[in-house]
Each structure stands twice: as structure tokens, then as C-alpha cells.
């Protein structure tokens, strides 16, 4: 309120400002008598601008120059201009003002410069910051404690503090005893003294319980595969390979790719539809009309079929006659003759075999040879199968791709080498190849309950 | 029809096998637990010979286990631990659900754990059995130690693997057991000989990691569990065999001072055992002695040499490999702890750099690329450094795991190395000499031919001779051993001996029976074919090299 009044006053004191009341009152010259005993009225009706100006001026001087200008010495305010200053002074002045600083301290940030105090009068001390509510009491207590300590007296509280044991955090039992504890201990598991000790332990066990320890089946110590654990890559797989071995490796990879391509082509061929086989209108009509048109040809066919049937019927009637005795006797004689003939033939064969010994031998040898060959082939196949991965489960073993770098991917130096293939995958596949684990693929996410799809009401309204 | 009739599928092979699900139910375990148990105990599924019989008439693919194995599993104490763990998980879930945090704490502290020591003892009753299976264990441990320590697999497992692999490498360094190294695109293959066993393992590169999604991590983690235990025990035993303290202190960067350990190892191996085995020829004995001497020489390959590794070379691999052969190694202090000396050391003999140009400051040391170290180890001698200077096209890194037989193609680099091994002077086979006239080129080509012939002569002389003789015999001409002038100049006295041998051989051939001759022809044909192929390949290689030379000339001009 006082400020508003002051503003009015200032405004009114501007030259050329016309007031409502002023024009009428200035003529009368009679001013109303105001009481300035109270603060409120004194503030309203007194003009302190001149004093304020003076005080502001003084404060400005103190802020900017650190004291009243009138009290300063002449040398601090004025200097004698003697012309161009010397080079050395200039050089000293420039580096600080220049934009590039060759020194190590970086230029201060503009925001820091803005926020710095630029008044030469220091800010007043904040007393509240130094005040402590219980300062006297605390000081008294600490002094007493010092005095007691100087004397050598230990208070009850201190005694209890000292007697308390420090907290030692023990490592978790589960961590230290775990199998993969990084600091675990190893001992001599194949030590010599174990054998005798073990026997006595086993005797004791047998005596007490009447049971023997279970032995490990011997077949378990057989290796499931003859392949070595680590198969070194072909010499073409070196990071800086020899030309021919690299080509050989590329050729192998190429052959694998060719095989794959052939299989794909085969599938495509099998699935391909021959354009000629597609039904055209002609063939469709022919199919539909089959059996309906061209009756002349059909009649000829029927007649031919008829004749054959008649013949068959006649032949059939001849079989129905009974056999006469003569025929039966003849049949018997024939049979006996036949038997005799066969007998003589057999005997002749036996005799002739003597002369055929050589060829018989030859044929026997040939048979033996062929069986031997077959046996060898079978054995070779069995041996080859041993090095193949066995089929141990639902999935077949998929060999991994050959690790090969193309000629333009080869790095000239160890630094630029980009590794090919992943050793993790290689080890995993090697375990499968050696029949240690069955080939597995990643478990798919199977939903327990089928998802239900429901249309939103709004959507149904639209469509 | 009584009750004593034979029922189908009640005897024979059917009674030996059991399906996986039935086995699981018998053991009362869940499927992942059953799998884990089988892996730990070393029980693998079997494929029966007659699947239809075993599968009771159907051919559906099923996993079969032997019943004896499953019955053996029933006596395993770990099965109880698995069941305890299942109960623990159930209780923990309940406590979480009821937000009883004190119960959770208590349960966590008493989590059931198990140890695999007895399984190791049962599966590998002797130390040598364990050593035979260590290949797999090493590969897995090295693989896991390169994993990042995110939460995917237990961080403790990774730490344990790291510790074990460092211990193993330390042992190999102390015992000087490393024999072959091969840098491939997959990783680095090492081969060491420990107690007579050849052990090969693969170490992946540190910076390659795309975790494939179709690998079952639980299975791999179970294998690693078993293998870490196995490797730990083996390490213990190996350290004790060298009279070293286990667990070794301060192994953070393979920086342990091995001087003491090395000397003790040398003392043990100083005695060459000279037990002549009955019935062994002198030749074999001599051969063994020679081999042993070679091995001794190989072990001190880098003795006295001081190496310094630059920042961009694979530090762990090189440090391991150099130390294995007696060299001293160091690197920049800011790269890793454990560096013993700085770049500025005057006594450094070799500085290994992999950049195209180095800031060569020091005079009395060679600046070479890292392949030199590996090639030296594979060649078992200190190779000449010139081929491996910075900016030079490196010779190809050959695989030491390839054994070439007679008549197979041998790359010229390998031939050169063998020559160096035998002590011949390094040939002037530089194909990148700057000042060359065409005349000199031709002369050099001839030289190359001669040298190649010389080198291959000892191995293939007999075959070549024989080839010529057979050709001439088949043509009905009288035998004349014709020799090209180049050869004659150099090897006159040896030639006569070989001529005599060839004569004897020819006589023996003439006296063979028809059948034997037929077989012999077949064998020779096969051999000749190999030789012809090898010659073809060398010709191709030459053509390729000539073409490269021509190209280089063109680009320069």
C-alpha cells in the first residue's frame, strides 16, 4: 500500500503530469493539515527520495569500488597516459584475454562467471548456520569425558561397548561347499594309501550290514565312440593357409553345397507338374463322353469276346468225362517210367560229376569268394558305422557346416582375423557325434490351453 | 492253450533295454535331473541292433538305455541330493510367495549342495584313465573361461574354469610339455605330451562371441561341472609330480617366476633311461635316442631370448607359448598386470608387432609378426626372421597335425623348413627381390628347379628312377639310366650307389612270378599316380607364383 502511494507520488511529481485535484487545489494554496505522528500517515505524506538517492549512490560506490570515491587516493582513480605501452606488458595481458589458452587450466564456464559474486562487499555471515541447539551441554559432556579419560576411568557404557564382539560375516555354507566354488580345495584322489584303507572299510561294511558295495558295470568304461575327443581342422582351415589345402577345403564345402542343391532340385522335380498333363477342354470332353459315343466299334468287340467264350465252354465240357481204367493204368506206368528216368538221370549225374570236379571246384571257390567279399564289405560297413553317430532319439544328427573362409575373407594378419564358427556349437555337436548325448533341439513354447479370439463389440458393429 | 506259452517280448534283447521315460519313472526324477545324472555318471543311451524287437514291434525312434546301467544308477547318493534340491525349490517358492523373508534367508543359507569327488574316483580309478579323458575337459574349461560374466551361467563356474585353465597352462610351462600349435579360423589348437599321453585341446579366441541359440546350456553346464572337478584333481596330481605347491600363488597373469620350478624339472629329466628292450634292434634304440635328443633341443628353443609383446597381439597365447620353450616375455604395463620389463629394456631380442609399420626405435632387436613364434615351434628350430618382418607377406601357416607320406604333395614352404631342419643353408628362393633382370629370373627359376629337385631327391629318387625304368622296359628298350646334367654336377658318388641299388631291384622284379608281378604293377601304378599328381601340383604352384611375379612387375612398372 505504501508502495502504491509512493508510486503515485513519483508519477505525480513528473513534469507535465495533470492531476485531477491538483489544478483545483494549487490555486487555493491552502493545504489540508496532515498528522504525521503515526507510521502510516508519515509514510504517506513524507518525501524521502533525496535521502534514498544519496544512500543508493553511496551503496553503489561501495559495491563497485569498495569504498566511497571521495575517500580514495588519486592514484587509484587516475593514471597518466604516457603513450603506447611496452610489448612485454601486452604479452602478459593477452593470454588471459585471448580465446585460445595454451595453459592446462580450461576456461571457466560462462554460467559460473554469471553466478559469481561481483560485489566488492562480502555477504553477511549466516548466524543460523553456526548455531547448535545443545552446544553448551554437549561441550560440557565432552569435556567431562576427556577429564575422565585423562584420569583413566572407564565408564560402564564404554565397558559394555568394548566387550561386544565384532560382527564377522561368515561365508554361506552353501557357497563354500558347492561344487563350483572358485576357491575350492582339491586333494589327491588317486593316492596310494587308499587301496588298503578301502578294503578294510569294505570288510567292515560287509560285516555290519551283510551287503557288498555295488560295483560299476564294466561296460560303462567302454567309450561309446571311436572318434577322438578333439578333431583338428584340416590344414586349409589355418588363418593363413597354404593355397592348395585351402582350395581342397573349399572344394569339400562346395561339394556339400552341391549335394544340398541336388536334393532340392530333386524335390522340385518331383513336385513339378508337367504342363502337358493339365486337363485341356478336349481331354475333359473326351473323358466325359467315354463309353457313350462310337457304338460300332463296341459291337465288333462284343462279338469277338463271344467267340472266345464259346470255345472255352466246349473245352470245359470235355473235362467232365470220367477216366477209363486203361487211362489209369497208363498213368501209373507213366509215373513209374518217369521215376525210373529220374533215378537213372540222377545216377548219371553222380557219375558225371566226377568229370566235372574241376568246374565244381571252381564254382565252389567262386561262391566262397563271393561270401568272403560280402563278409568283408559287411565288416567294413560295420567299422564305418562305428565312427558314425548312432541314432539315439527322435532327431537325426545334423553335422555342422564346415568352417571355411572364402579367399577374400582371409585375413593377412592375426590382428585382422575374424573367427569363423563357434567353439561352443562345435563342442556340442562333438558330444552328439560321439554318442554322449542325443541330438536335441530347443524346446518350443507349447500353450497349455488354446487361445480364444473374441471380437470386440465395437468391431462387430463396424463389419 | 495253457498259461505256459511263450509271450512275445519277454526275453532276449528286449529285457536288456529300457526306454528313457520308464527309466526316469523308475528313478523318480524329472527329465532335466535325469539328464544331468546320466551325464555326471557317464551313462549314455544305446542304439540296439534290432530296434523293432526292442521296441516291441514299432519302429518309433526312442531313446534306449541299458537296464543294468539304470539299476546301477539307483544306488547313487546324488539322486537323493537332487530330490532334496527339488524340495528346497518348492519351499523357497512358498516362502517367496508368502513374503517371509527370514525364511527365505534361512533356506538360502542351507541350500543343499553335492560334491562329485566319489564319481570321479569311480569313473577314473587310475590317474592314467583320467588323463585319457582330459582333452574334453580342457576344451570345455577353456571355453567357459572365455564367457562373459553375465548371469547366463553361474559366475562362480566361470571363475573356477579360469583358475583351472591358468593352473594347467602353468603346469605345461613348467613341464615344457607343449609340442604343437596351430592357429586356425576356429581357434588355437595346442598339443602337449603329458606322461606319455598326447593331449590336444582347442582354445577359442577371446573376442568372438555369438552365442548360438540351439545349444543346450544346461547340458554344457553339467558337463563343465564334471570336468572342472576332474581337471582340478588332475592338476593337483600333476603339480605334485613336479614337486610344486598346489594351489599355486599369484597366478593372475602367468607371471610366476619359473626359474626355480624349471630347474627342478630339468633335474628330473636329466637322466636318459637307457633300458634296451629285448629284441629291439640297434636302429630303433638309436632312433629313440635321437628323438629324445630332439625333444630336449626343442624344449630349449627360446632359451636366452627376450620377447616384448605389443598391444595388438594376442597376449595370453603368446606369453604361454613363449614361456613353454624357455623364453622371457613381457608387455606394456597398462595392458595387464604381471609385466616384468618395459619397452625400453636394452636386452630385448625380439619385439612382436602386428601393425603394418612400427615406430622402429631400437636397433638391436628384431621386429617380427607373431606367426614367427608359432612357426618356430612347429618347425622345432629357430627360423630365419627375414620372412616375418613387418609389412612382409607372411609364408602360409602350415598345420603341424598333418603327416605327409611319401609321394604326397608337400608345399614348398614345408620342404624349405625340412631343409633348414637338416642344417642346409637357406636357399635363395626369394620371390620378391627388387632388382631382377629377365636373365636373372630365368637363372633363378633353374636354381629353384635344381634346389627343389635336390630336396625332393632323397625321398623320391627311387620312385622316379623306377618310373623311368618301367617306362623304358615297357617300351622294350634296353635300360639306360639317364641323368640330367644338373643332377650329375652335384651328386656323383651318391648316384653310383643308387644305380647299383636300382640294378638289384630290377633283377628282383624280373624274377617275380606272374601273380606277384601283377600285384607289384598295381602298387607301382598307384604310387606313380600320386607322384604324377604331386608333380602336377608343384607345376601349378609354380605357374601361380610366376603369374604373381608377373603381376607384381606389371603393377610396379
From TrEMBL, chain A:
The keyword Manganese does not apply. Residues 167-176, 258-289, 331-352, 371-388 have a biased composition (Basic and acidic residues). One of its GO terms (biological process) is rRNA processing. Residues 292-314 have a biased composition (Acidic residues). Residues 21-46, 157-187, 258-389 are annotated as: Disordered. GO terms for molecular function: 5S rRNA binding. It comes from the Eukaryota. Its main location: nucleus. Keywords: Nucleus, Ribosome biogenesis. Residues 29-43, 320-330 have a biased composition (Basic residues). One of its GO terms (cellular component) is nucleoplasm. InterPro entries: Nop53/GLTSCR2 (IPR011687). It is found in: Nucleus, Nucleolus; Nucleus, Nucleoplasm. It holds the Pfam family Nop53. Belongs to the NOP53 family. May play a role in ribosome biogenesis. This is Ribosome biogenesis protein NOP53. It comes from Scophthalmus maximus (Turbot).
TrEMBL record, chain B:
Residues 420-501, 531-557 are annotated as: Disordered. The keyword Nucleus applies. SUPFAM superfamilies: BRCT domain. InterPro entries: BRCT_dom (IPR001357), BRCT_dom_sf (IPR036420), PES (IPR010613). Residues 463-473, 488-501 have a biased composition (Basic and acidic residues). One of its GO terms (molecular function) is ribonucleoprotein complex binding. Signal peptide: none annotated. Component of the PeBoW complex, composed of BOP1, PES1 and WDR12. Within the PeBoW complex BOP1 interacts directly with PES1 and WDR12. The PeBoW complex also associates with the 66S pre-ribosome. Component of the PeBoW complex, composed of BOP1, PES1 and WDR12. The complex is held together by BOP1, which interacts with PES1 via its N-terminal domain and with WDR12 via a high-affinity interaction between the seven-bladed beta-propeller domains of the 2 proteins. The PeBoW complex associates with the 66S pre-ribosome. The PeBoW complex also associates with DDX27, PES1 interacts directly with DDX27. Interacts with IRS1 and UBTF. May interact with MAP1B. Belongs to the pescadillo family. This is Pescadillo homolog.
Amino acid at each position: 500500500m505504501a508502495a502504491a502511494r509512493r508510486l503515485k507520488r513519483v508519477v505525480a511529481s513528473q513534469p507535465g503530469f495533470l492531476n485531477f485535484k491538483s489544478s483545483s487545489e494549487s490555486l487555493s494554496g491552502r493545504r489540508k493539515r496532515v498528522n504525521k505522528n503515526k507510521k502510516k500517515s508519515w509514510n504517506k505524506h513524507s518525501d524521502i527520495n533525496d535521502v534514498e538517492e544519496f544512500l543508493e549512490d553511496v551503496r553503489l560506490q561501495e559495491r563497485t569500488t569498495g569504498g566511497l570515491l571521495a575517500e580514495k587516493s588519486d592514484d587509484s582513480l587516475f593514471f597518466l597516459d604516457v603513450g603506447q605501452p611496452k610489448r612485454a606488458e601486452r604479452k602478459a595481458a593477452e593470454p588471459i584475454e585471448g580465446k585460445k589458452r595454451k595453459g592446462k587450466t580450461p576456461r571457466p564456464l560462462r554460467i559460473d562467471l554469471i553466478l559469481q559474486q561481483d560485489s566488492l562487499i562480502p555477504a553477511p555471515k549466516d548466524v543460523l548456520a553456526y548455531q547448535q541447539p545443545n552446544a553448551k551441554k554437549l561441550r560440557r559432556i565432552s569435556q567431562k569425558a576427556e577429564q575422565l579419560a585423562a584420569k583413566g576411568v572407564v565408564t560402564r557404557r564404554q565397558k559394555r561397548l568394548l566387550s561386544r564382539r565384532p560382527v564377522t560375516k561368515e561365508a554361506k555354507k552353501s557357497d563354500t561347499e558347492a561344487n563350483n566354488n572358485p576357491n575350492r580345495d582339491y586333494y589327491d584322489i588317486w593316492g596310494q594309501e587308499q587301496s588298503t584303507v578301502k578294503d578294510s572299510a569294505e570288510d567292515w561294511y560287509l560285516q555290519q550290514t551283510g551287503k557288498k558295495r555295488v560295483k560299476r558295470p564294466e561296460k560303462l568304461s567302454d567309450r561309446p565312440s571311436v572318434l577322438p575327443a578333439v578333431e583338428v581342422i584340416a590344414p586349409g582351415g589355418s588363418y593363413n593357409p597354404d593355397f592348395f589345402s585351402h582350395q581342397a577345403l573349399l572344394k569339400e564345402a562346395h561339394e556339400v553345397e552341391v549335394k544340398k542343391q541336388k536334393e532340392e532340385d530333386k524335390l522340385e522335380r518331383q513336385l513339378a507338374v508337367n504342363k502337358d498333363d493339365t486337363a485341356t477342354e478336349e481331354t475333359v470332353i473326351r473323358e466325359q463322353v467315354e463309353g457313350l459315343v462310337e457304338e460300332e466299334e463296341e459291337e465288333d468287340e462284343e462279338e469277338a469276346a463271344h467267340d472266345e467264350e464259346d470255345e472255352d465252354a466246349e473245352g470245359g465240357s470235355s473235362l467232365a468225362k470220367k477216366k477209363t481204367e486203361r487211362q489209369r493204368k497208363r498213368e501209373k506206368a507213366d509215373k513209374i517210367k518217369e521215376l525210373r528216368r529220374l533215378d537213372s538221370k540222377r545216377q548219371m549225374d553222380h557219375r558225371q560229376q566226377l568229370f566235372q570236379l574241376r568246374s565244381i571246384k571252381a564254382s565252389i571257390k567262386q561262391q566262397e569268394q563271393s561270401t568272403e567279399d560280402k563278409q568283408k564289405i559287411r565288416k567294413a560297413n560295420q567299422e564305418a558305422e562305428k565312427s558314425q553317430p548312432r541314432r539315439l532319439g527322435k532327431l537325426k544328427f545334423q553335422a555342422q557346416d564346415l568352417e571355411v573362409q572364402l579367399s577374400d575373407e582371409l585375413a593377412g594378419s592375426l590382428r585382422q582375423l575374424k573367427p569363423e564358427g563357434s567353439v561352443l556349437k562345435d563342442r556340442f555337436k562333438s558330444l552328439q557325434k560321439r554318442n554322449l548325448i542325443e541330438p536335441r533341439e530347443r524346446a518350443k513354447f507349447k500353450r497349455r490351453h488354446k487361445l480364444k479370439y473374441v471380437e470386440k463389440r465395437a468391431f462387430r458393429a463396424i463389419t | 492253450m495253457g498259461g505256459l506259452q511263450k509271450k512275445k517280448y519277454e526275453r532276449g534283447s528286449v529285457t536288456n533295454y529300457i526306454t528313457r521315460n520308464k527309466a526316469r519313472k523308475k528313478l523318480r526324477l524329472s527329465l532335466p535331473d535325469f539328464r544331468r545324472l546320466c551325464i555326471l555318471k557317464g551313462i549314455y543311451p544305446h542304439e540296439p541292433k534290432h530296434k523293432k524287437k526292442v521296441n516291441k514291434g514299432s519302429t518309433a525312434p526312442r531313446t534306449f538305455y541299458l537296464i543294468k546301467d539304470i539299476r546301477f544308477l539307483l544306488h547313487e547318493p546324488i539322486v537323493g541330493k537332487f530330490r532334496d534340491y527339488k524340495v528346497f525349490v518348492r519351499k523357497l517358492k512358498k516362502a517367496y510367495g508368502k513374503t517371509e523373508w527370514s525364511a527365505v534367508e534361512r533356506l538360502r543359507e542351507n541350500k543343499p549342495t553335492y560334491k562329485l569327488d566319489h564319481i570321479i574316483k569311480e569313473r577314473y580309478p587310475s590317474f592314467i584313465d583320467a588323463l585319457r579323458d582330459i582333452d574334453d575337459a580342457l576344451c570345455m574349461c577353456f571355453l567357459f573361461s572365455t564367457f562373459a560374466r553375465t548371469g547366463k551361467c553361474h559366475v562362480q563356474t566361470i571363475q573356477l574354469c579360469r583358475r583351472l585353465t591358468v593352473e594347467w597352462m602353468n603346469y605345461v610351462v613348467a613341464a615344457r610339455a607343449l609340442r604343437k600349435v596351430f592357429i586356425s579360423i576356429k581357434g588355437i589348437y595346442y598339443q602337449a605330451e603329458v606322461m606319455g599321453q598326447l593331449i590336444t585341446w582347442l582354445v577359442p579366441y577371446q573376442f568372438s562371441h555369438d552365442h548360438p541359440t540351439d545349444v543346450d546350456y544346461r547340458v554344457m553346464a553339467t558337463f563343465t561341472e564334471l570336468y572342472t572337478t576332474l581337471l582340478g584333481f588332475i592338476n593337483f596330481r600333476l603339480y605334485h609330480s613336479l614337486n610344486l605347491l598346489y594351489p599355486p600363488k599369484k597366478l593372475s597373469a602367468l607371471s610366476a617366476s619359473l626359474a626355480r620350478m624349471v630347474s627342478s624339472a630339468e633335474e628330473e629329466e636329466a637322466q636318459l633311461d637307457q633300458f634296451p628292450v629285448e629284441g629291439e634292434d640297434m636302429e630303433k634304440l638309436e632312433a629313440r635316442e635321437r628323438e629324445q635328443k630332439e625333444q630336449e633341443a626343442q624344449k630349449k628353443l627360446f632359451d636366452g631370448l627376450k620377447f616384448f609383446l605389443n598391444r595388438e597381439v594376442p597376449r595370453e597365447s603368446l606369453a604361454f607359448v613363449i614361456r613353454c620353450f624357455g623364453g622371457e616375455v613381457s608387455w606394456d604395463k597398462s595392458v595387464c598386470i604381471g609385466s616384468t620389463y618395459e619397452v625400453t629394456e636394452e636386452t630385448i631380442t625380439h619385439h612382436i608387432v602386428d601393425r603394418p609399420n612400427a615406430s622402429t626405435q631400437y636397433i638391436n632387436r628384431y621386429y617380427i609378426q607373431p606367426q614367427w613364434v608359432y612357426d618356430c615351434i612347429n618347425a622345432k628350430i629357430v627360423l630365419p626372421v627375414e620372412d616375418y618382418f613387418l609389412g612382409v607377406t607372411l609364408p602360409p601357416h602350415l598345420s603341424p597335425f598333418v603327416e605327409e607320406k611319401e609321394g604326397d604333395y608337400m608345399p614348398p614352404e614345408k620342404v624349405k623348413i625340412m631343409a633348414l631342419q637338416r642344417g642346409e643353408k637357406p636357399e635363395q628362393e626369394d620371390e620378391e627381390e627388387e632388382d631382377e633382370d629377365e636373365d636373372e629370373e630365368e637363372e633363378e627359376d633353374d636354381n629353384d628347379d635344381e634346389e627343389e629337385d635336390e630336396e625332393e631327391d632323397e625321398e623320391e629318387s627311387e620312385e622316379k628312377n623306377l618310373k623311368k625304368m618301367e617306362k623304358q622296359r615297357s617300351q622294350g628298350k634296353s635300360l639306360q639310366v639317364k641323368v640330367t646334367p644338373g643332377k650329375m654336377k652335384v651328386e656323383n658318388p651318391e648316384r653310383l650307389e643308387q644305380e647299383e641299388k636300382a640294378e638289384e631291384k630290377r633283377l628282383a622284379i624280373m624274377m617275380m612270378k606272374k601273380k606277384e608281378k601283377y600285384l607289384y604293377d598295381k602298387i607301382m601304378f598307384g604310387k606313380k599316380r600320386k607322384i604324377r599328381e604331386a608333380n602336377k601340383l608343384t607345376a601349378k604352384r609354380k605357374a601361380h607364383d610366376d603369374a604373381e611375379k608377373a603381376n607384381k612387375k606389371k603393377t610396379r612398372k
